[in-house]
Amino acid sequence: MTTIGLKPPQQHLGIAELRETWAIADDAGFDGCWVFDHLAPMGPDRTGDVFDGWSLLAAMAEATSRVRIGCLVAGNTNRHPGTFAKIAATIDHLSGGRLDVGLGAGGDTHTDAMMGTPTPPAVERVERLAEACEILRLLWTRPVTDFRGRHYTLTGAVSDPKPLQAKPPLWLGSSGEKRGLRVVAEHADVWLNAALPGTDIAELRRLSRVLDEHCAAAGRDPAAIRRAVQFRLPPGPDAALRLARDYVEAGFTELVLMPAGPDGVVAACETAAKLLPRLRDVD
Residue 131: pLDDT above 70? Predict the structure, then answer.
């Protein structure tokens, strides 16, 4: 079964516009509504307004009633895993158990430099991501957690309340063939691959096969990990439907739409909502 989420552009939008996009996602029947986790707008021009993603999720939890919510993806280097576990559990309660937890290795040299925080090397960031996944599992399920890793140490750590969900779904965004996809194979419920313009679907299929190989090495059924892709909706319904069908045929069952258009974000979300019934038929 294919699920379809909406990830409206978050940058340069005011709160009123953001609330409109959340209402569209909730009312139209989208399965998920997503934000991102960046301190500055993305793209060639990194200036302008952008609100904190996890604060927005708390507001979205209260402003919606049925759509699942989440962040694609939280940067692991932005917060200690213990702090992140507490934030996620809080939002799971605020939403009545509707949180999907997106997490990636993190690292943004632009905002790290302006804030004076280090950008660890890629290998270290992936190691930290693996440890963070384990810490989240422990803090969300055990009364007291002791953990000693290479990068994080917890001693008698308590994190209550636990999330409402027994196991909040963990969406991991990583495509590193040697290390990143191994972490996905070991910890993820959903693997997220961001298909930027020009990404070859054949390459996505290849990476999915690499993930299957890591699952086999980790003793995990590859079918236990759903495959997700976030992509910009092309102009015109026929092109959008063709692209969605290509992703589904490639094995991606979680489609995250990134609407855009000349008439603004709210109008683009409304256009995506009108297309949603036809997108449901691409299975």
Answer: yes
Checking if the pLDDT of 197 tops 90, the result is no
Strands 170-173 and 145-148: what pairing?
A: unpaired
The Cα–Cα gap between 196 and 37 comes to 17
Contact 37, 69 (CB under 8 A): no
223: which 2 tokens? 């079918």
The string of pLDDT tens digits covering residues 22-50 is: 999 999 999 999 999 998 999 889 999 99
CA 161 – CA 166 distance, rounded (Å): 12
Query: How many Cβ atoms sit within 10 Å of the Cβ of residue 142?
Result: 13
pLDDT digits (tens, 9 = 90+) for 59-109: 999 999 999 999 999 999 999 999 999 999 999 999 999 999 999 999 999
Give the mean pLDDT of the chain.
95
Q: How many CA atoms lie within 13 A of 203 on its CB side?
A: 12
Q: How far apart are CA 72 and CA 121, in angstroms?
A: 21
pTM of this structure = 0.96
Q: How many CB atoms sit inside 10 A of residue 167's CB?
A: 11
Contact assessment for residue 118 and residue 88, using Cβ atoms and an 8 Å cutoff: no
CA angle 116, 122, 128 (to 5 degrees): 80
Tokens encoding 265: 């974000």
Helix, strand or coil for residue 154? Answer: strand
The answer to whether 123 touches 179, Cβ cutoff 8 Å, is yes
Beta strands in the chain (DSSP E): 3-6, 32-35, 68-71, 74-75, 99-104, 145-148, 153-157, 170-173, 190-194, 226-232, 254-258
